[in-house]
Predict the 3D structure of the following.
Amino acid sequence: MKILVVDDSAFSQKITIKTLRSIYPDAVYETADDGVECIEKYGTFLPDLVFMDLLMPNMTGQEAIVQLIKKFPDAKIIVLSADVQLTVREEALAAGALTFINKPINVDKLEEIKLLIEG
Amino acid sequence: MLTTTQEDILKEMYNVFVGEAANLLSEILQKRIFLSVPEVELLSIRDLDFIDKDNLIPILNGTILSTSLKFGNVFSGRAEFIFPTEQIKYVTALCLGEEYAMEAEESSFSDEDFDVVKEIGNIILNAIMGGMGSLLEMKLDYDVPQVVLHEQGEFSKTFFNSQESNILLLYVNFSVDESEVIGLILIKFSLESIEFLIQKVDEISRDVDE
């Protein structure tokens, strides 16, 4: 499995990958610092899952989701954001995100994601 | 000037959102978080000319690192999560799950320190402002959070230098293990937002009285 973690915070990337490793220890991880880098890396890395922050410089997560889904309709994008607003969640899901979880990430939240993905 | 009821409702609302933020902070730091009683102050531009800004919130007199989150549109202002610099290394170590060894001289900060402060501030301030947005039934737009190192007293000068006629100040202290204050939250609202918030508070007050 290949997982792309998109976040402008190196600390957040590190924590996300560390937590993900407890669920997906054998996955290959790649990072992107913003939406622009995410779009660039998606085409070459071809991840099975994307963990996407929303509030980022250069290109926000919302914009990146729209562009990714347009190019890769099967992209599985999980939003990982500090924004707790219901409207933001609804907008992200309407744009094509698979699901939305609030920071901080933890193993319980990831177990739910795993269930959702694997059925 | 806020009435006692308005102040009480604002404090209680703020308390709920800060409680949620403290819960998140506790999860990040893996530590019990202690909160001070939240304070609410409505300061007019006249107050700002005369108040003793140095003693209003003493922690601001020192060198501090702040995460600043600007929010808008109709309801707008600036929320700040402030760390005294002497606590930064401790907070960073807690976040990264590393051992903390106090050093004699801790005046320089790494990119990692700044990044940790930015991310914690972002999570905490989003929890509080998101709660307020839900209460007001309003979507808030945010700018990307900024982390700034302020030398002694610099923060007060800029934060309290308002172009607006009033500032509504909400603040609370966080501490770990009942020891030193590790952080402080300050929120400043624009004039229109204060009016909007007070209207909402009055509605809540009427609903309660009915």
